[in-house]
Structures are given as structure tokens and as C-alpha cells.
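Figure 6 in text form: structure in, sequence out.
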């Protein structure tokens, strides 16, 4: 990818890059685009990796720290990965499709765009997300649960089913399981404008990482528990979803815009390394995007 002078790369981190036009989607009254989500996903993965590496301090060897960093799956998948997943499921078997995707941890946040709707109504102007939760028990009925969080329900209900069916396919689970494994989370506060939808997805992912939430709090431990709670949002997720408010989404937009704008300016002046790969490097050279106001 060339650094087009008309739309130059202004921030580089890990495998992601943020272009000038990407950064502009964090300005007021703009829809978040794929570039911002991708870069934010890379930052979250780095934060999680640094946390895992610090927990391995007791083992202390450089190899242990590197193993912890390398083995941490990304929580938030980038939109291009979900696009690929949805496009290959009709032609590839489960294992072949899965091998094209990043490893899935016990929790995965899947971006859902309205353009995935089979009803043909989406134009790529609305984001929601699915929190995919791997079940803790084995045997009949085991697999994954999906919890759809949409700040403009039921706008993306059909698109969410498409994404969830594709994800189940890559796990070797029949699409007939979609109805009994995908649930709507009603505790999400409706957005108050037409453009903050994508911020809800970033906010959810940020809260999961920031609070070091254990996946076990989102999932049943037996088939009996799964059946008795079918259709119900786990209490931990209800609590988390209630924190997804218009005010917090708006504040995250401000925080990320200021953070990436400062990073871009300092990178242009040569005050920070051209390409950083760890959250520690980012904090030391740029700072932290997390505002105490949230």
C-alpha cells in the first residue's frame, strides 16, 4: 500500500495504519470507518498482550513474556476480517475458512455492518457488534453464544444473523443453530444521533479490556444452565451494556480524536517512533486515550 499524498498515512501501529481521511471520521457528526476500528483493535490487542506479559513477570524469562504476547488473541476483529469471513463461507469448509481468520479467544467482538443484511437495505452506514462467547462446557449443545448489541435496534438484526451464521460455520457449527445461539441485548441505550453507532462497539471492547473481565462471567457452565437461561442476557453483560451510553460514546469520540491527532502531529514532527508495536511504547511516547471523564 502506497502512502498517497492525497490521503497520507498519519499514524502507524502494529499492522494497522490510520490515514488522514480515517482520522476525519472521528470528527463530530461523522460515521466511523474501518480504518479507525482496525487501528483501535490493534491498540486493544497490544494492551491485552502487555497485560498478559506483565502477569508472566513471575516466570520472568524473555521467552515467557514473548509467548504471552504472541498467544493473546485479538478481542476486536477488524471489519475486513468479518467481510472475508462472510464472503468465503459459501465456498470453503469450516477448517479452510477458519485458517484464513485470526485465532479466536473465548471472547470475540465481531463488527456488524448493515451492508451484511440479506434484505439489501444496508448501505454501510450503521455499525453494531456481536460479543461471541465460547461456552465453557463440552458435549452436546456446546459451542458458542452470540450477544448482539445494537444502539439502533432492530436496524441490524438481519445483518447480525448473517455474520453469526458465518462465524458458526468457521467453528464447524450448522447455521441452523443461529436462532438458539444468537440473542439481542436490550440494555444498550439507544444512540441520540445518526453517527455514533461505531463508538458503542469500541466502548464495549475497551470496557472488557479495561476491567480485565474474565470470559467465564459471560457464559453458562453446563447445558442445563444454557437451556434455563436461553434468551437471557448474562447479568455481567447486562451491567456492561448499561454502561454503553450516548454520553460515554460521545466522550470516546473526543478522546480518540484528540489522541490520534496528537499522535499524528508528533509523528509528522519525528517526535515519536515511526512504527510502534506495544502499548507501553504508545503510553511512553504519546500518552493514553482513556479519559477520566469516562
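Output sequence:
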Amino acid at each position: 500500500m502506497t502512502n498517497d499524498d492525497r490521503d497520507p498515512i498519519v499514524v502507524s501501529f502494529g499492522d494497522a495504519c490510520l490515514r488522514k481521511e480515517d482520522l476525519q471520521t472521528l470528527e463530530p457528526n461523522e460515521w466511523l470507518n474501518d480504518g479507525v476500528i482496525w487501528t483501535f483493535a490493534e491498540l486493544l490487542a497490544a494492551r491485552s498482550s502487555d497485560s498478559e506479559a506483565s502477569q508472566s513477570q513471575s516466570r520472568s524469562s524473555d521467552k515467557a513474556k514473548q509467548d504471552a504476547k504472541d498467544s493473546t488473541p485479538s478481542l476486536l476483529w477488524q471489519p475486513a476480517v468479518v467481510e472475508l469471513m462472510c464472503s468465503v463461507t459459501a465456498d470453503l469448509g469450516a477448517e479452510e475458512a477458519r485458517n484464513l481468520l485470526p485465532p479466536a479467544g473465548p471472547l470475540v467482538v465481531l463488527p456488524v455492518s448493515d451492508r451484511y443484511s440479506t434484505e439489501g437495505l444496508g448501505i454501510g452506514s450503521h455499525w453494531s457488534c456481536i460479543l461471541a462467547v465460547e461456552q465453557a462446557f463440552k458435549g452436546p449443545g456446546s459451542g458458542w453464544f452470540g450477544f448482539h448489541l445494537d444502539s439502533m435496534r432492530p436496524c441490524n438484526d438481519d445483518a447480525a444473523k448473517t455474520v453469526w451464521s458465518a462465524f458458526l460455520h468457521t467453528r464447524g457449527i450448522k447455521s441452523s443453530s443461529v436462532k438458539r445461539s444468537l440473542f439481542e441485548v436490550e440494555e444498550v441505550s439507544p444512540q441520540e444521533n445518526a453517527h455514533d453507532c461505531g463508538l458503542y462497539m469500541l466502548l464495549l471492547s475497551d470496557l472488557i479490556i479495561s476491567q480485565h473481565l474474565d470470559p467465564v462471567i459471560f457464559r453458562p457452565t453446563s447445558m442445563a444452565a444454557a437451556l434455563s437461561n436461553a434468551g437471557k442476557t448474562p447479568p455481567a453483560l447486562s451491567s456492561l451494556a448499561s454502561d454503553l451510553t450516548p454520553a460515554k460514546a460521545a466522550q470516546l469520540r473526543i478522546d480518540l480524536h484528540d489522541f490520534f491527532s496528537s499522535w499524528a502531529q508528533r509523528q509528522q514532527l519525528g517526535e515519536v517512533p515511526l512504527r510502534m508495536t506495544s502499548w507501553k511504547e504508545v503510553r511512553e511516547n504519546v500518552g493514553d486515550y482513556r479519559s477520566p471523564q469516562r
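Caption detail: Strands lie at 9-13, 16-19, 107-113, 127-134, 144-149, 182-184.
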